[in-house]
Amino acid sequence: MAYPATRVDAVVDTLHGVQVPDAYRWLEDEKAPEVQAWMKAQDVLTREALAKSPVRDALAKRFRELFYVDSISMPARRAGRYFYVRTHKDKEKAVLYWRDGEKGQEKVLLDPNGWSQDGSVSLGTWSPSWDGKKLVFAQKPNAADEAVLHVVDVDSGEWSKVDVIEGAKYAQPKWTPDGKGFYYEWLPTDPSIPVDARPGYTSLRFHKLGDAPSKDAEIHPRTGDPSTFLQGDLSRDGQFLFVSILRGWIENDIYWKRPGEKDFRLLVKGKGAKYNVQAWKGRFYVTTDEGAPRQRVFEVDPAKPARAQWKEIVPQDPVAALQTVNIVGEHLALEYMKDATTLVRVATLQGKPVREVALPGVGAASNLTGLEDQDEAYFVFTSFTTPRRVYKTSVKTGESSLWAQVEVPMDPAAYTVDQVFYPSKDGTRVPMFLVHKKGLKRDGTAPTLLYGYGGFNVNMEATFRGSILPWLDAGGVYAVANLRGGGEYGAEWHEAGRMAKKQNVFDDFHAAAEYLVREKYTQPKKLAIQGGSNGGLLVGAAMTQRPELYGAVVCQVPLLDMVRYHLFGSGRTWIPEYGTAEKPEDFQVLHAYSPYHHVKPGVAYPALLMMSADHDDRVDPMHARKFVAAVQQAAGNQAKALLRIEMNAGHSGADQVAKSIESSADLYAFLFEALEVGGLQGGEAAQGR
User: Cβ distance 232 to 174 under 8 Å?
Assistant: First the structure.
């Protein structure tokens, strides 16, 4: 392809005695006119190329059927009022509703569809007060992480003109029981603070309704360490205030005090372990992987908070990894993961097992959600072939009923879901889900899309993905590998894919691809890979390490320059996960797999679609720009290397349905062409029948 002209500079850094070329350093400066022009030219080239696909119109039509649907979320119950989010077949964005009582009249509270002409302003986090009379919510320009808090009166629908708080990038407001104010995490918007240092400026503040935010009291100061996160929490009864200082996804410290007391006191100092604490009726309930990689639960008397006084009430399960614990209906609701599928159990507050929640199938379920002293609870269930369902359940009796479900134009009986286990390079047994139409012939010809993530203790669950249906209908296989670095098997699984062990994640991914070829599902030229964020790093490493194993790559909002990642966006908060090139021992590891630094001239790389966002303030889009430039310039690379930039979008993309349709149509049009997939030109496949 005739790519836009790209300047190649002779920039070379010497790090720990190693020369590190960086020919596209200039593409880091997004505001530079030259970079802006380059980005526009790349995006235009990509969109024009994808628009020529003979299957794109059929794909877009099918996605319109699949994405414009009516749905409803689990409700949040506050003093008899119910708050929930609906999507509508005829609206671009989800709408927040409320009603008095479960059967009360439904009323619109927040409709972000009217917040901006171009749809660029989004609804972020929201939290109703305990009396249900006020609600604090975040507005997010360009669907980015940066946000502004507002307060709305539920009965009148009027927004407060005083309670407007900027600096809410990390804010998760916690209301006091009387509804007169809330605690929140605050981040200064001072432009003089270096971007990479900002996370260390997060503090905990308290806002009293009606006061100017500038008067908000600082409850806990900033850490000053940009590799940490600070999070606050308040018990529902308002008796205990907690602050957690997190160092990555492996350990944290917890401090606590009673509101009104001057100083926080240390509850636990995390040393290679993480802790989560909740309070109810004068007791702390601490969930931790300390001494238990699959997690356990302790009861703590705040009058005797010393670690030696903690009482274990839920021991570590022999095989299942505990994910979350909620206090609902005077019980403990315990969400587990066993071989990448969900189990939900109920126990007494003393930890005595009561029952396992009956789920409608094998898949992914949320934990029970409700109030600590109310029997009524809700949970969500979904699977690869089951669109999201919301169930209402009784904690006391275990009886459940369907509360809401999404109706999607599809036939679940047409598809098969299998779970397989394969050996990685070092012999580790790794699970993988395979989804395809029934009757698939394993002759090595099926176009296959392999998805993975492998990091930050994040699980890849068996959730419904409407976007894969046209792929399946055209005879494709969709595979999801549960790589090390995730949390599917607890802390040890995460640890095995972190820092110096990161190569294990890539080896797991290569082994998944080799399994699919060996078992005659597909062949390299018919095998595509996809990943976003840390998963973008995954597919970037896979592409540069084993280019002959893959036929196409979809890389979304990725990290790819692992030598300089910590200098941009929220990069320093990920140092506990990856390490930093500022340390010699970490540099050796990072430089050894950093995808940007391993694009080599003369190598025939698979076709690449890079999907970036112009307002990604979490992972800087410089990664995408520099990598695409390097791949395009690699001599001998005949496959396409395209850069698509979503406008007015953040790390998670834009939240308008129309943009999701366009993005998905482009993604699959690229895959259909790159892997030479037929079957969606028209007729039944295009109609989804």
Answer: yes
648-678 b/e (C-beta count within 10 Å ≥ 16 → b): bbbbbbbbbbebbbbbbbbbbbbbbbbbebe
Query: Mean pLDDT, to the nearest integer, of 630-634?
Result: 94
**Contact between 460 and 481 (Cβ < 8 Å):** yes
Tens of pLDDT, residues 406-423: 999 999 999 999 999 999
pLDDT in tens, 232-276: 999 999 999 999 999 999 999 999 999 999 999 999 999 999 999
pLDDT at 638: 78
Q: Give the position of tokens 């609870």.
A: 377
Question: What CA–CA distance (Å, rounded) separates 625 from 34?
Answer: 13
Catalytic center residues: 533, 651
Counting Cβ atoms within 10 Å, is residue 306 exposed (0-12), middle (13-18) or buried (19+)? exposed
Report how far residue 664's alpha carbon sits from residue 173's, in angstroms, rounded to the nearest whole number: 33
DSSP code of 519? T
Q: Are the CB atoms for 323 and 487 separated by under 8 Å? A: yes
What SS3 state is found at 512?
A: helix
pTM of the model: 0.96
pLDDT of amino acid 649: 87
**HSE-up of 115 (CA within 13 Å, CB side)?**
24
* Per-residue pLDDT, 683: 33
Neighbours of 31 (CB within 10 A): 6
pLDDT band at 678 (very low <50, low <70, confident <90, very high): confident
Instruction: Kindly tell me if the per-residue pLDDT of 379 is higher than 50.
Output: yes
| Exposure b/e, 362-381, CB count within 10 A at least 16 = b | ebbbbbbbbbbeeebbbbbb
Tell me the pLDDT tens digit for each residue of 317-332. 999 999 999 999 999 9
Contacts of 40 (CB under 8 A, 6+ apart): none
Residue 581's φ and ψ, nearest 5 degrees, are: -65, -10
Above 80 in pLDDT, residue 636?
Answer: no
Looking only at the bridges linking them, the beta strands covering 331-338 and 321-328 are: antiparallel
Tally the C-alpha atoms within 13 A of residue 54's C-alpha that lie toward its C-beta.
Answer: 9
For the packed helices 503-518 and 584-593, what is the interaxial angle rounded to 10 degrees? 20
Torsional sign, CA 376, 100, 80, 279: positive
Provide the pairing of β-strand 429-437 with 400-405.
Answer: unpaired
DSSP symbol at 66:
H
Tens digits of per-residue pLDDT, 640-662? 999 999 988 888 888 899 999 99
Q: Provide the token pair at 144.
A: 């980015």
Pair 669, 59: CB distance under 8 Å: yes
**285 Cα distance to chain centroid:** 26
Mean pLDDT (the chain, rounded) = 96
Question: Which of 398-412, 455-469, 523-537, 670-684 has the weakest average pLDDT?
Answer: 670-684
Q: Is 6 helix (H, G, I), strand (E, B) or coil?
A: coil
What single string gives the DSSP state of each residue in 552-604?
A: EEEEES----TTTGGGSTTGGGGHHHH--TTSHHHHHHHHHH-GGGG--TT--
Angle, CA of 84, 371 and 321, to the nearest 5°: 95
Residue 320 structure tokens:
């299942």
Contacts by residues 17-22 (CB-CB < 8 Å, ≥ 24 positions apart): 18/587, 18/591, 20/563, 20/591, 20/597, 21/597, 22/563, 22/564
